[in-house]
Amino acid sequence: MKTEQMEELLRARIAQIKDPVQKILLQDVLADVFEELLKYTDSCFTNLERRIDTERNDDSQLYDIYTGVCKKDGLDAASRCLAAVDAVLEPGREAEYAQAERGYLGTLFLACKYPDVQQCLKEPHRAEVETDQGNFQIQASLSFSYAYREAFAWLYQQFGANRRMWHTPNCPFLYKMLDIFDTEHIIPKDASVLKVTADLGKYSESAMNDMVLVWNLSKEEYQTRAKEGAAGELSFYEHRILLPEPQSGYLVMTGEDSLKEQEAFLAVRSGEELCVRTQEAAYSAVSLLKFNRMDMRKDQTALLYPTASNHRNLRHADRQAMGQPRYLWTKGETERILHSYEAFQDFELLDICPDKEGEIKSMDMNPFIQTHSMLKQKRKMALVLHPKDSSDIFQYEKMFFLLSELQLCTEEYEWTGIIRE
């Protein structure tokens, strides 16, 4: 029986009593019993959902990614939560990037909205460069940071190598980090760049140097011993690692300082232990990528803006709905999906419009992912959002993150977005 029906039944029975004293006593008794009954019922359903979720062993939230931005001198050396993005990359990436991109002068953070960033990317800019060999006046160009985009591409590869579902990062700061290039190649190749001041017109005041992206990922190395084993006709090496923090997520890193990139391995987690099986070789040490639990009370990183995350608050009903086919997309269904993301709390859903182009060119949040399904001609589905804070410079990037998550839910539409303030 629904709550509304039970309330109507109680009111009807109380109305039949004529004695005022009895009526008051019955009202108090029924009200208390009804309230306790509701509390008991809710607790029973809550305990049942927790039991089912525990049996499902859904550890996806251990791999939530939190991102932020701060100045280089604002990093906390003793941080247990946030670390610089380039601190966990494979060795040699910075050198390869500097060699491949001739004319690279540095990276700046542009604190303005995404359409303004696009405008700055289209036009050349005058810049003054201070080096150890003197000052130079050059013509510079801007582009999205190659190194940071490569970092997230590398992270995607780590998820794939560990056979874990990819969690699209919500990193609105990523597309504010811009590389500066000497288009005329005036700066000597052997010169050390000390400072770059670019003339961006009305956006010059929004440009900040010495900025760095941070995330809640860190690299840890564990010594281990390999034991030989066999399964059928295959032999393997088994490495067991005792995890110091079972409430954190771990990925086995592949690269020069850990498992070989071409190594086929299987990582199985059981409680506080991680079992890594390899076929080609035995390893004395294994590097793990750790997803630190966020507790900013224990972190003194001087962030310029609050952290952004891809965390989802999935109810039991949401998990059930994820396994059901969707033959018809409605505003209510779309809003239910979006409400599970913390990033959606900054928006209001106005409408969804089929066969409508977006007012701004969309941004591919996963430029390193290539799928044949995305190359097919699809119907456009426009998501119309209203930002609760019109001054939020990250509203477009947050919308693009939500669009990328909706795209993972459907094959029949190509999602685009519209911001209406």
In short:
With 421 residues, the protein is α+β, with helices and mostly antiparallel strands.
Write structural notes for this entry.
- The protein is 27% helix and 29% strand.
- The chain is of the alpha+beta class and 421 residues long.
- It has a six-stranded antiparallel β-sheet with strand order 7-4-5-6-3-8. The chain has a four-stranded antiparallel β-sheet with strand order 2-9-1-17, with no helix packed on it. A four-stranded antiparallel β-sheet has the order 11-12-15-14, with no helix packed on it.
- α1 runs antiparallel to α2.
- It is globular and about 100 Å long.
List key phrases describing it.
single chain; 8 helices; 6-stranded antiparallel β-sheet; 4-stranded antiparallel β-sheet; alpha+beta
List the helices and strands and how they pair.
Layout: H1 3-15, H2 20-56, E1 66-71, E2 83-84, H3 93-100, E3 104-110, H4 114-122, E4 125-131, E5 134-144, H5 146-161, E6 177-182, E7 193-198, E8 207-208, E9 211-215, E10 217-223, E11 226-231, E12 234-242, E13 249-252, E14 265-270, E15 273-278, E16 285-291, E17 308-309, H6 316-322, H7 331-339, E18 347-354, E19 379-387, H8 395-409, E20 413-419
